[in-house]
Amino acid sequence: MISDVLLAAFGLGLFALVLTAALSPLETLSWWAGWTEEELDETSPPPPNPDGKRRRYIVYLSGVASLSGEFLLPREKAFIRRLHQKFPDAVIVSDVFPYSPNGMPLLESPRLFDRIWRRAQILKLRERQSLFHTLINVRNIFQVMVSADHRYGPIFNQGAASVIESSLLEDGYVRGSGDPVIIIGYSGGAQVAVGAAPFLKARLGADIDVISLGGVLASDPGLNYVRKLHHLTGEKDRIERVGAVIFPDRWKVLAYSDWNAGKKDGRINIHRLPRMSHAGVKGYFGRPPVNGVSNAERTLEKIAELI
After folding, report:
1. Where do the domains of the chain lie, and which CATH numbers do they carry?
2. Which of 131, 171, 176, 239 stands 20 to 30 A from 141 (CA)?
């Protein structure tokens, strides 16, 4: 009886995995097919900066466990609060859902599986691990792969850039002002940040810097449009290393790839964080003190130094 239940659960999980993989590019293509002429024509000359003062804008893109831009894990929320305290004069945008080309949260109708994602949210709030929790990660990982794909990536990344731009404009950003934009991308959010960089740079008329926090990212053409990429990787982060393996253009043997060329000319810098893993209490946002200082505080201090 138990074996039958386990077999059925495995079959259901495998079916969900295959279905999620098959549907991953469809959301991007359906968004592209519905892109209106009004959105395409949104290229009016930028208005002048009203006070002439420059402000720093920081965008945070969550990891693959994210359900919504407004639904961050408690450790991430604590990190954003500390970032606000560290940079009180900066505008920090943290409401972007990076795993959809139109920014639609998984919890929002009329998504096909919105009831499943709502159930997953309840379990996450109760800090209970489940198959639903794994499905969130898998679903968003496939969207990261779409962003990195040379066929669908440009479409997905245009959408992600539009979502980021909209949030920046809502928070007072002025196109053409030259105000610097810094994107902190955690896990898969780093790939979306790099992929969106060319479109953001063109639409905002601003330099784009990216801080990759345990980022799983490809040798994306967007790297050529990033002024600086700081790639922070934990000493015990096995998830981040997956990107260095599954994307061949990041291999050292391909010296002229966008990734290796960026490292060679100094636009890409690697920073090793001792004893940190990808997630959990020992991850970048871990709050238990280690030798009197938490990983979250170490991560914050390093990011503040880079900013």
Report:
1. 54-306 (3.40.50.1820)
2. 171
Return d(Cα 252, Cα 102) in angstroms, integer: 35
Q: Which tens digit of pLDDT belongs to each residue from 74-109?
A: 889 999 999 999 999 999 999 999 988 887 766 555
Residues recorded for the chain: 307
Per-residue HEC secondary structure of the chain comes to CHHHHHHHHHHHHHHHHHHHHHHHHHHHHHHHHCCCHHHHCCCCCCCCCCCCCCCCEEEEECCCCCCECCECCHHHHHHHHHHHHHCCCCEEECCCCCCCCCCCCCCCCCCCCHHHHHHHHHHHHCCCCCHHHHHHHHHHHHHHHHHHCCCCHHHHHHHHHHHHHHHHHHCCCCCCCCCCEEEEEECCHHHHHHHHHHHHHHHHCCCEEEEEECCCCCCCHHHHHCCEEEEEEECCCHHHHHHHHHCHHHCCCCCCCHHHHHHHCCCEEEEEECCCCCCHHHCCCCCCEECCEEHHHHHHHHHHHHC
Residue 159's nearest CA partner among 199, 203, 187 is 199
Angle, nearest 10°, between helix axes 131-148 and 2-33?
Answer: 40
Please give the structure tokens belonging to residue 153: 């990536």
Give the distance between the most distant pair of CA atoms in the chain.
71
Q: How far apart are the first and last CA of the chain?
A: 57
Q: Are 144 and 99 in contact (CB under 8 A)?
A: yes
Cα-only R_g, the chain: 19
Residues 272-281 have pLDDT tens digits of: 999 899 988 8
Question: Residue 200: which of 217, 218, 183 has the closest Cα?
Answer: 183
Residue identified by tokens 């004069």 is 89
